[in-house]
Write a structure and sequence with these properties.
Length: 262
Protein backbone atom coordinates (compact mmCIF):
# COMPACT_ATOMS: atom_id res chain seq x y z
CA UNK A 1 0.00 0.00 0.00
CA UNK A 2 2.83 2.27 -0.53
CA UNK A 3 5.43 3.93 -2.65
CA UNK A 4 4.02 6.41 -4.68
CA UNK A 5 1.89 3.89 -5.81
CA UNK A 6 1.90 1.73 -2.80
CA UNK A 7 -0.32 -1.18 -2.18
CA UNK A 8 0.39 -3.56 -4.93
CA UNK A 9 1.74 -1.77 -7.83
CA UNK A 10 4.89 0.16 -8.07
CA UNK A 11 4.91 2.18 -11.18
CA UNK A 12 5.27 5.84 -11.56
CA UNK A 13 3.53 6.89 -14.70
CA UNK A 14 5.00 10.01 -16.32
CA UNK A 15 1.50 11.28 -16.96
CA UNK A 16 -1.76 10.96 -15.10
CA UNK A 17 -3.51 7.89 -16.49
CA UNK A 18 -6.68 8.32 -18.48
CA UNK A 19 -9.89 7.15 -16.79
CA UNK A 20 -10.52 3.49 -17.43
CA UNK A 21 -13.90 2.43 -18.85
CA UNK A 22 -16.27 1.15 -16.23
CA UNK A 23 -16.90 -2.55 -16.28
CA UNK A 24 -17.97 -5.10 -13.72
CA UNK A 25 -15.12 -6.71 -11.80
CA UNK A 26 -14.65 -10.41 -12.14
CA UNK A 27 -14.53 -12.52 -9.02
CA UNK A 28 -11.56 -11.62 -6.82
CA UNK A 29 -10.44 -8.83 -9.14
CA UNK A 30 -10.14 -5.11 -8.63
CA UNK A 31 -10.66 -2.79 -11.59
CA UNK A 32 -7.80 -0.33 -11.99
CA UNK A 33 -9.01 3.25 -11.75
CA UNK A 34 -7.21 6.52 -12.25
CA UNK A 35 -9.01 8.25 -9.39
CA UNK A 36 -9.45 6.24 -6.23
CA UNK A 37 -12.28 7.55 -4.03
CA UNK A 38 -12.07 7.06 -0.31
CA UNK A 39 -14.54 4.21 -0.33
CA UNK A 40 -12.78 2.00 -2.86
CA UNK A 41 -10.33 -0.84 -2.38
CA UNK A 42 -6.75 0.35 -1.78
CA UNK A 43 -5.32 -2.04 -4.29
CA UNK A 44 -5.94 0.13 -7.31
CA UNK A 45 -2.77 1.43 -8.91
CA UNK A 46 -1.79 3.51 -11.89
CA UNK A 47 -0.60 1.71 -14.93
CA UNK A 48 -0.70 -1.60 -13.10
CA UNK A 49 -2.60 -4.76 -13.96
CA UNK A 50 -5.64 -5.51 -11.87
CA UNK A 51 -4.74 -7.30 -8.67
CA UNK A 52 -6.66 -9.66 -6.45
CA UNK A 53 -8.09 -8.44 -3.19
CA UNK A 54 -6.04 -11.01 -1.32
CA UNK A 55 -2.70 -9.39 -2.18
CA UNK A 56 -3.00 -6.31 -0.05
CA UNK A 57 0.42 -4.90 -0.82
CA UNK A 58 1.01 -1.36 0.30
CA UNK A 59 3.05 -0.21 -2.59
CA UNK A 60 0.68 0.33 -5.39
CA UNK A 61 1.62 3.48 -7.00
CA UNK A 62 4.19 6.06 -6.63
CA UNK A 63 2.40 9.00 -5.22
CA UNK A 64 3.86 10.96 -8.04
CA UNK A 65 2.54 14.29 -9.18
CA UNK A 66 0.23 14.23 -12.12
CA UNK A 67 1.71 14.98 -15.49
CA UNK A 68 5.25 15.98 -14.66
CA UNK A 69 6.80 13.30 -12.49
CA UNK A 70 7.72 16.17 -10.21
CA UNK A 71 6.02 17.25 -6.99
CA UNK A 72 3.57 20.08 -7.35
CA UNK A 73 4.99 23.54 -6.68
CA UNK A 74 3.99 25.01 -3.32
CA UNK A 75 0.67 26.84 -3.44
CA UNK A 76 1.84 29.78 -1.45
CA UNK A 77 5.44 29.59 -0.42
CA UNK A 78 5.34 32.46 2.00
CA UNK A 79 2.34 31.09 3.82
CA UNK A 80 3.33 27.46 3.52
CA UNK A 81 6.82 28.05 4.82
CA UNK A 82 5.36 29.77 7.83
CA UNK A 83 2.99 26.90 8.45
CA UNK A 84 5.77 24.35 8.11
CA UNK A 85 7.77 26.21 10.72
CA UNK A 86 4.88 26.28 13.13
CA UNK A 87 3.51 29.76 12.38
CA UNK A 88 -0.27 29.72 12.37
CA UNK A 89 -0.34 25.98 13.06
CA UNK A 90 -0.70 24.38 16.47
CA UNK A 91 2.35 22.40 17.62
CA UNK A 92 2.18 18.80 16.47
CA UNK A 93 -0.69 19.60 14.14
CA UNK A 94 -0.33 19.55 10.38
CA UNK A 95 -1.57 22.54 8.42
CA UNK A 96 -4.96 22.02 6.81
CA UNK A 97 -4.27 20.94 3.22
CA UNK A 98 -5.86 22.74 0.30
CA UNK A 99 -7.78 20.16 -1.68
CA UNK A 100 -6.75 17.25 0.53
CA UNK A 101 -8.44 15.51 3.43
CA UNK A 102 -7.67 17.19 6.79
CA UNK A 103 -5.33 15.01 8.90
CA UNK A 104 -7.75 14.92 11.81
CA UNK A 105 -10.46 13.52 9.54
CA UNK A 106 -8.39 10.38 9.03
CA UNK A 107 -7.17 10.19 12.62
CA UNK A 108 -3.73 11.78 12.21
CA UNK A 109 -1.80 14.44 14.05
CA UNK A 110 1.79 15.43 13.23
CA UNK A 111 4.17 18.32 12.72
CA UNK A 112 5.12 18.84 9.05
CA UNK A 113 8.80 18.88 8.01
CA UNK A 114 10.33 22.09 9.29
CA UNK A 115 11.18 24.56 6.54
CA UNK A 116 9.43 22.57 3.81
CA UNK A 117 6.72 24.24 1.73
CA UNK A 118 3.25 22.76 1.53
CA UNK A 119 2.26 21.73 -1.99
CA UNK A 120 -1.03 21.21 -3.78
CA UNK A 121 -2.22 17.66 -2.94
CA UNK A 122 -4.56 17.63 -5.93
CA UNK A 123 -1.49 17.53 -8.19
CA UNK A 124 -0.30 14.29 -6.64
CA UNK A 125 -1.58 11.01 -8.07
CA UNK A 126 -1.77 8.35 -5.36
CA UNK A 127 -3.74 5.11 -5.03
CA UNK A 128 -5.93 6.39 -2.25
CA UNK A 129 -7.23 9.55 -0.65
CA UNK A 130 -4.57 12.26 -0.47
CA UNK A 131 -4.18 14.27 2.71
CA UNK A 132 -1.21 16.57 2.23
CA UNK A 133 2.17 17.04 0.55
CA UNK A 134 5.36 18.94 1.41
CA UNK A 135 8.55 19.62 -0.52
CA UNK A 136 11.84 21.37 0.26
CA UNK A 137 12.87 21.85 -3.36
CA UNK A 138 9.96 21.02 -5.72
CA UNK A 139 11.47 17.57 -6.36
CA UNK A 140 11.84 15.73 -3.05
CA UNK A 141 8.57 15.27 -1.20
CA UNK A 142 6.60 13.77 1.66
CA UNK A 143 3.06 12.68 0.81
CA UNK A 144 0.45 11.55 3.33
CA UNK A 145 -2.56 9.54 2.18
CA UNK A 146 -4.92 6.76 3.22
CA UNK A 147 -6.18 3.68 1.40
CA UNK A 148 -9.49 2.09 2.34
CA UNK A 149 -8.87 -1.63 2.43
CA UNK A 150 -12.20 -2.63 3.96
CA UNK A 151 -10.42 -5.25 6.06
CA UNK A 152 -7.34 -5.53 8.29
CA UNK A 153 -3.96 -6.32 6.75
CA UNK A 154 -1.10 -7.71 8.81
CA UNK A 155 1.87 -5.28 8.74
CA UNK A 156 4.40 -8.06 8.07
CA UNK A 157 2.40 -9.50 5.16
CA UNK A 158 1.92 -6.03 3.72
CA UNK A 159 5.64 -5.29 4.06
CA UNK A 160 6.80 -8.44 2.28
CA UNK A 161 4.32 -8.05 -0.58
CA UNK A 162 5.18 -4.37 -1.03
CA UNK A 163 8.93 -5.02 -1.11
CA UNK A 164 8.51 -7.85 -3.61
CA UNK A 165 6.24 -5.73 -5.79
CA UNK A 166 8.75 -2.89 -5.99
CA UNK A 167 11.58 -5.23 -6.81
CA UNK A 168 9.72 -7.03 -9.59
CA UNK A 169 7.96 -4.11 -11.25
CA UNK A 170 10.60 -1.38 -10.98
CA UNK A 171 13.82 -3.23 -10.31
CA UNK A 172 14.13 -1.37 -7.03
CA UNK A 173 16.71 -2.39 -4.46
CA UNK A 174 15.39 -2.95 -0.95
CA UNK A 175 17.73 -1.20 1.47
CA UNK A 176 15.82 -1.65 4.68
CA UNK A 177 12.55 -3.23 5.76
CA UNK A 178 11.08 -3.88 9.18
CA UNK A 179 7.89 -3.95 11.20
CA UNK A 180 7.94 -0.98 13.57
CA UNK A 181 5.95 0.98 16.12
CA UNK A 182 4.85 4.28 14.62
CA UNK A 183 2.31 6.79 15.83
CA UNK A 184 1.27 4.45 18.64
CA UNK A 185 0.47 1.53 16.33
CA UNK A 186 2.23 -1.32 14.52
CA UNK A 187 3.21 -0.64 10.96
CA UNK A 188 6.14 -1.08 8.62
CA UNK A 189 9.11 0.87 7.33
CA UNK A 190 10.45 0.15 3.85
CA UNK A 191 13.34 1.94 2.14
CA UNK A 192 14.00 1.25 -1.54
CA UNK A 193 16.25 2.73 -4.21
CA UNK A 194 16.07 2.65 -7.98
CA UNK A 195 16.31 4.47 -11.27
CA UNK A 196 14.04 7.47 -11.50
CA UNK A 197 13.63 11.21 -11.73
CA UNK A 198 14.49 12.33 -8.22
CA UNK A 199 10.76 12.81 -7.68
CA UNK A 200 9.83 9.15 -8.13
CA UNK A 201 11.11 5.73 -9.14
CA UNK A 202 10.21 4.62 -12.67
CA UNK A 203 12.81 1.93 -13.30
CA UNK A 204 14.38 3.75 -16.24
CA UNK A 205 15.37 7.29 -15.25
CA UNK A 206 18.91 8.58 -14.90
CA UNK A 207 18.67 9.76 -11.30
CA UNK A 208 19.09 7.28 -8.46
CA UNK A 209 15.99 7.88 -6.36
CA UNK A 210 15.16 6.65 -2.87
CA UNK A 211 11.77 6.16 -1.28
CA UNK A 212 10.94 5.59 2.37
CA UNK A 213 7.50 4.06 2.83
CA UNK A 214 5.88 4.05 6.25
CA UNK A 215 2.50 2.31 6.37
CA UNK A 216 0.16 1.64 9.28
CA UNK A 217 -2.73 -0.73 8.55
CA UNK A 218 -5.79 -0.24 10.73
CA UNK A 219 -8.87 -2.44 10.83
CA UNK A 220 -10.37 -1.01 7.64
CA UNK A 221 -7.72 1.17 6.03
CA UNK A 222 -4.00 1.84 5.69
CA UNK A 223 -2.32 5.14 6.59
CA UNK A 224 0.70 5.87 4.39
CA UNK A 225 3.52 8.39 4.65
CA UNK A 226 5.90 8.38 1.69
CA UNK A 227 9.16 10.29 1.45
CA UNK A 228 10.82 10.47 -1.98
CA UNK A 229 14.24 11.97 -2.64
CA UNK A 230 17.20 11.88 -5.00
CA UNK A 231 19.83 9.64 -3.43
CA UNK A 232 22.34 12.46 -2.93
CA UNK A 233 19.78 14.39 -0.85
CA UNK A 234 18.33 11.42 0.98
CA UNK A 235 20.27 11.76 4.25
CA UNK A 236 19.13 15.34 4.86
CA UNK A 237 15.54 14.68 3.78
CA UNK A 238 15.38 11.48 5.83
CA UNK A 239 16.36 13.44 8.95
CA UNK A 240 13.43 15.81 8.38
CA UNK A 241 11.12 12.85 7.74
CA UNK A 242 12.20 11.12 10.96
CA UNK A 243 11.44 14.27 12.95
CA UNK A 244 7.98 14.32 11.37
CA UNK A 245 7.44 10.64 12.23
CA UNK A 246 8.46 11.23 15.84
CA UNK A 247 5.58 13.70 16.19
CA UNK A 248 3.04 11.41 14.51
CA UNK A 249 0.01 10.23 16.47
CA UNK A 250 -2.52 7.86 14.90
CA UNK A 251 -5.96 7.14 16.30
CA UNK A 252 -8.24 4.31 15.26
CA UNK A 253 -8.34 0.56 15.76
CA UNK A 254 -5.99 -2.31 15.03
CA UNK A 255 -6.88 -5.98 15.42
CA UNK A 256 -4.96 -8.21 17.87
CA UNK A 257 -3.24 -9.81 14.87
CA UNK A 258 -2.07 -6.43 13.61
CA UNK A 259 -0.88 -5.38 17.06
CA UNK A 260 1.12 -8.59 17.44
CA UNK A 261 2.89 -8.32 14.07
CA UNK A 262 6.66 -8.90 14.16
Amino acid sequence: MLTAPLLPGWAQAPVHPRPQPKKPASKGEVIVKSDTPADTDPQTSQGQPATTQDQGTAAQGQGTPQGQGQPAPPQDQGQSQGQAQGQGTAPGQAATPKGGVPPEQIGLSFAPPQGWAQGDPTKFAVPGTICCVWSPDNASSVAVFVQNSGKPYNPRVLLEQSAEGLQKSLGAEVRQKEVVNVGGMRGFSLVVSGKGTGAGIDGKGTIITDQHWVAVPRDKDVVILLMTSADDKFAANEAAFQTMLSSLKISGTQTPDQQAAK
